[in-house]
Amino acid sequence: MRQRRPSVQDHNSLGVHFYSVGAYDLAIAELEKAVALAPEVASLHFNLGGAFYNKERVGDAEREFRLALALEPGHVKAHWFRGLCLEKMGRLTEALEEFRWVRRNSTGTREARSAQEEIHAIGLMLKGSGAEEHSTDGS
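Structure (tokenized):
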């Protein structure tokens, strides 16, 4: 009897399970298989980005969130996490753009409130470093 090959959904489900129990290396391995089978699915890139982020592979995480956004530009959480990655990478102006997008496009949500806090914090960092950013709390 021939066994069926694991599907995209099988790899994704296993990856999400491993992620949920903190087994990020196993999650990454499964999610990479899912992405290889269906690179056009934004949620797979998002899930893989989350696993990379939790392994502190911030550059890889940012790339996956960016790919998710190329496929689904309105993915609020991908904008949010990409902003966190950019902030950790020291790319503060780009991070501000992501957090501002979240604040504008998810009004009244937890993400919007958190985005406002990040915008404020980045503004303080920029002010403290002498690199003035125009309107960190506005636009």
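The chain has seven helices and no strands. Confidence is low (pLDDT under 50) at residues 133-139.
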